[in-house]
Specification:
Blueprint (H helix, E strand, L loop, with lengths): L2 E7 L3 H12 L4 E4 L11 E4 L2 E4 L12 H9 L6 E3 L2 E6 L2 E4 L4 H5 L6 H19 L19 H14 L13 E2 L10 E2 L1 H6 L8 E3 L4 H10 L5 E4 L4 E6 L3 E6 L3 E9 L6 H4 L5 H8 L4 E10 L8 E5 L6 E4 L14 E8 L6 H15 L7 E12 L19 E3 L10 H18 L4
Parallel strand pairs: 1-2, 1-14, 2-11, 6-16, 14-20
Antiparallel strand pairs: 3-4, 5-10, 6-7, 8-9, 12-13, 13-14, 15-18, 15-19, 16-17, 17-18
Helix pairs in contact: 1-7, 1-11
Length: about 450
């Protein structure tokens, strides 16, 4: 049987980026995907004349972030990104731009002035704790907030935590809001999103991919070197063969010998694929909590959302993030119509039918006349992040106890979110491959 250089399990964005990087570095790669399509939760497809994404996305750090670094290194075809515009906060019937600067924060009338001053004091407390060498991974955002802040302000911050971390303000560590400028550990850290919130103008290097998320997937595939990447769909992996090191992969119908395995599925599923993992490692993986979301896509016969950007619905139940994607790219909807994605955070346990009705009612409550303009409605239940970044949750790692078995994806590195978290994991994986002498 022919021995492969690398088997990549899963063709989500992490698996595809890994396959691209390895193939461009000279490896021959086989991708095994259990579904009939590639891209995972980073793709687009057609619904009644509209082009919907797997959940609304905005790609951040396009000037110097991890995806940009991978694109510069490995992409032959680079997607076109359209500036994402402003983030608007909606509380009650009022909508205002997200307050990225000090001046904007001090005049951000959706929150009480007293709360805004208290939050600025909290920021300085964070800076003090950082300079004192405090471990932010065990301190939640709620712990550094004054008790006197209003319910509205707590909901505003809770919204940020759910969409940036996948958990509530009571479980979101400050470390999520502290980041480095690059993936390299020697880089001097800076206080990330909380710093941005008060000090600098934000959202200036963020964009939406023209043509939808599928354009990113297509660019990756079109950048594969000729005859170096083979994609096999409808192939379910049953077992990863390991001795002292990884030896191969067994599927429903075949087996593959290989030098290296890159696993981009759920890290919490690894114990079902490998029999001999250490107990402590297995216990951590099984404590990972996935992030659940619901997206409702509406095709509208009238352009209801006129602001160029997205909206944060702080008052909605459940919380919602709204992106009119056809405002960025009109070809995603029939001429004259508008395509809007409404992403909702979901609790750990929920009834699908009930939550869909509740989420749709939230849309109607916020936009009362929207029902008369609905041309298309499409529901998606998704897992946008494979691991919640909470202090009481397990988290995976790129390096595993098995030699030459690596993991990539949003449950393997605590950096950023979404596509960028995937990209960070791939950069870390490439660094580790090199340090192991495998690249």
């Amino acid at each position: 049987m022919k021995k492969n250089d690398v088997i990549v399990i899963g063709s989500g964005i992490s698996g595809l980026l890994s396959a691209l990087a390895l193939s461009r570095e000279g490896k021959k790669v086989v991708i095994l995907e259990k579904e009939s399509y590639i891209g995972g939760v980073c793709r687009s497809y057609d619904v009644n004349g509209y082009r919907v994404d797997t959940g609304p996305h905005i790609i951040t750090r396009l000037e110097n972030g991890p995806l940009k670094e991978l694109m510069d290194r490995y992409f032959k075809i680079v997607p076109e990104f359209i500036p994402s515009g402003k983030y608007y906060v909606k509380i009650g019937s009022e909508i205002k731009p997200f307050p990225w600067s000090i001046n904007a924060w001090l005049t951000f009338g959706l929150l009480p002035m007293t709360d805004r001053l208290l939050l600025m004091r909290a920021l300085f407390n964070i800076l003090y704790l950082k300079n004192a060498g405090k471990d932010f991974s065990s301190i939640t955002l709620s712990q550094i907030l004054p008790n006197k802040v209003s319910i509205t302000t707590r909901r505003f911050l809770d919204w940020l935590c759910y969409f940036m971390v996948g958990t509530s303000i009571e479980n979101a560590p400050i470390s999520r809001f502290v980041d480095n400028k690059t993936h390299h550990p020697r880089t001097v850290p800076y206080v990330g999103k909380l710093y941005d919130l008060f000090i600098k103008e934000g959202a200036t290097d963020q964009g939406y991919p023209k043509g939808g998320l599928q354009s990113i997937v297509s660019s990756i595939v079109e950048s594969f070197p000729k005859d170096r990447v083979e994609i096999k769909t409808n192939v379910a992996v049953k077992r990863i063969e390991c001795g002292e090191r990884v030896e191969g992969v067994v599927t429903t119908d075949d087996s593959y010998d290989c030098d290296t395995v890159v696993y981009s599925g759920f890290s919490s599923d690894l114990p079902h694929l490998i029999d001999s993992l250490p107990v402590a490692y297995t216990k951590n993986l099984t404590s990972i909590k996935r992030v659940n979301s619901l997206t409702i896509w509406l095709g509208l016969t009238k352009k209801i959302f006129n602001n160029y950007g997205s909206e944060m619905w702080v008052d909605s139940d459940p919380y919602a993030w709204v992106i009119p994607t056809s405002n960025y790219d009109p070809t995603l909807a029939p001429k004259g119509n508008q395509l809007v994605g409404f992403a909702f955070t979901l609790p750990g346990e929920y009834d699908a039918s009930t939550i869909k009705k509740k989420a749709f009612q939230t849309i109607v409550d916020n936009i009362p006349d929207i029902e008369t303009h609905i041309d298309m409605i499409h529901y998606q239940e998704l897992i946008p992040e494979k691991a919640s970044w909470g202090i009481n949750c397990g988290f995976g790692d790129v390096k595993t106890p098995i030699k030459n078995l690596y993991c990539v994806g949003t449950d393997t590195t605590k950096r950023s979110a979404g596509v960028n978290r995937s990209a960070y994991s791939v950069l870390e994986f490439l660094d580790i491959m090199k340090s192991d002498g495998n690249l």
